Structure formats: C-alpha cells, structure tokens
Amino acid sequence: MAKKRWSDLTGSQRAGTIVGSAVQFALAAAAWSDLANRPAKLVNGKKAVWAVVIAVNFVGPISYFLLGRRAHR
C-alpha cells in the first residue's frame, strides 16, 4: 500500500487528522501538567516512567489518568 500524502486526503480525512492530533496533544499536555504538579507520593510508580508512557498516543495519557494517580488525601 502506497503512503498517502496530505494532498491525497479528502477534506473529511484532513479534518479528522487535525482533530485527532489536537485531542492527542491536549491529553498529553494535561497529563504531563498534572504529573509535573502532583507530588511523587500521589503517583503510582515512578514519575519518570509515567512521563515516557504519556508520550504513547492516546493510550499513555488515558492510562496515566486511570492508573497512574492516587487520590488526594
């Protein structure tokens, strides 16, 4: 299968790509911001590992929000 270029995509495909990218970047930014401001004792595991995991597409930030944070006490 040949790679598609941006110019080969339909308007809907371009819009979907832009929206998906924006959502990905927003999730990652929110997760990294939360991680940076959260005390280490309120993070499940090492903060450095979570910082790398967050970079993995949608899975990383969602995993951090679901599994990486401990409740404030």
TrEMBL record:
Keyword DNA-binding: no
Membrane topology value: Multi-pass membrane protein
GO cellular component: plasma membrane
Keyword vocabulary terms for this entry: Cell membrane, Membrane, Transmembrane, Transmembrane helix
Pfam families: PLDc_N (PF13396)
KW Membrane (keyword) present: yes
Domain Cardiolipin synthase N-terminal: 27-69
Transmembrane segments: 49-67
Localisation per UniProt entry: Cell membrane
Domain of life, per lineage: Bacteria
Chief place where the protein resides: membrane
Protein name: PLDc_N domain-containing protein
